[in-house]
UniProtKB/TrEMBL annotation:
Family, as annotated: Belongs to the short-chain dehydrogenases/reductases (SDR) family.
PANTHER family named among the record's database cross-references: ALCOHOL DEHYDROGENASE (PTHR42901:SF1)
SUPFAM superfamilies assigned: NAD(P)-binding Rossmann-fold domains
Source organism (scientific name): Spongiivirga citrea
InterPro entries according to UniProt: NAD(P)-bd_dom_sf (IPR036291), Sc_DH/Rdtase_CS (IPR020904), SDR_fam (IPR002347)
GO molecular function: oxidoreductase activity, acting on the CH-OH group of donors, NAD or NADP as acceptor
Name this protein carries in UniProt: SDR family NAD(P)-dependent oxidoreductase
Keywords for this protein: Oxidoreductase
The keyword Repeat appears for this protein: no
Domain of life assignment: Bacteria
Length: 250
């Protein structure tokens, strides 16, 4: 029987690449994001390969998250894989200069949003006595870098929650693990720099940055291990990136 994956942040970058790779490998999809038109387009593209259902919600909206997931159609009720991917950085400023709105966005989306979605889905996995949760953390959740402050804190929280979920769900036989990328060329920096595409492009140039497909490939590897194998915590960086802030840009 085919598995079903629930992917947050499927409208762009890592989430979209994962959705496409899962579809190629016959994993049915529940695709989430705020941008309805992108979800519709992706569904049209993938529906010939697998069953696809889309959910449009903002992960910050607690009631909407629970209501939407509760209302999933019968054929999408059983969720085998949850990819907690929705998230972004907002701003790159010294802490003393940071925008409180940016701080709220990062904590609300990257931490609280991940918690809401997980809370809505974990009981289903417990009832099924199986499931696999992949939390997309970051190298920023392993090391703090200059001006990374609140984004790093949000990803350190994801790191802690990944470990906490694995511990608390252990007795239920549910797999939990994190994939923590370094620099991946997606819309991430455009969001961080509020649409400044030149500044965003400069983050990934001149270096051979990771691409969303590289991370999708790793996520697919993680979910296709035999059930007794759980990849608990994985860090992946471009070869040019030795740490969060040692980056060879020559
Ligand atoms: P993108 O900006 O390309 O994608 C972000 C995704 O998150 C979009 O699909 C977006 O959908 C969704 N999202 C953002 N805010 C919300 C919200 N409030 N509610 C629902 N969905 C939301 O970035 P990436 O693909 O790079 O990022 C994916 C994950 O990878 C993030 O958690 C990020 O922190 C992490 N990461 C990224 C790295 C990088 O260098 N790119 C490195 C390490 C980790 P929509 O706007 O339609 O809602
Ligand atoms: C994204 C990686 O280094 O831009 O999480 O923060 S970084």
């Amino acid at each position: 029987m085919r598995k079903t994956a629930f992917i947050t942040g499927a409208t762009s970058g890592i989430g979209m690449a994962t959705a496409k790779l899962f579809a190629q490998n016959k994993i049915n999809l529940i695709l989430c994001g705020r941008r309805q038109e992108r979800l519709d387009k992706l569904k049209n593209e993938l529906a010939s390969k697998v069953d696809v259902h889309t959910l449009t919600f903002d992960v910050r909206d607690r009631e909407e998250v629970f209501r939407t997931i509760e209302g999933l159609p019968e054929s999408f009720q059983k969720i085998d894989i949850l990819v907690n991917n929705a998230g972004n950085a907002h701003g790159l400023d010294l802490m003393q200069d940071g925008s409180v709105d940016d701080w709220d966005a990062m904590i609300d989306i990257n931490v609280k949003g991940l918690l809401y979605v997980s809370k809505a889905i974990m009981p289903r996995m417990i009832e099924q006595k199986s499931g696999h949760i992949i939390n997309i953390g970051s190298i920023a959740g392993k090391e703090v870098y200059p001006k990374g402050n609140v984004y790093c804190a949000s990803k350190f929280a994801v790191d802690a929650l990944n470990n906490a979920m694995r511990i608390d769900l252990n007795e239920h036989g549910i797999r939990v693990g994190a994939v923590n990328p370094g620099l991946v060329e997606t819309e991430f920096s455009e969001v961080r720099f509020k649409g400044d595409s030149d500044r965003a492009a400069g983050v990934y140039s001149p270096l051979d940055a990771l691409q969303a497909d590289d991370i999708a490939d790793i996520i697919h590897f993680v979910v296709t291990r035999p059930y007794h194998v759980n990849i608990a915590d994985l860090v992946v960086v471009p070869t040019a990136q030795a740490s969060a802030y040692v980056i060879n840009k020559r």
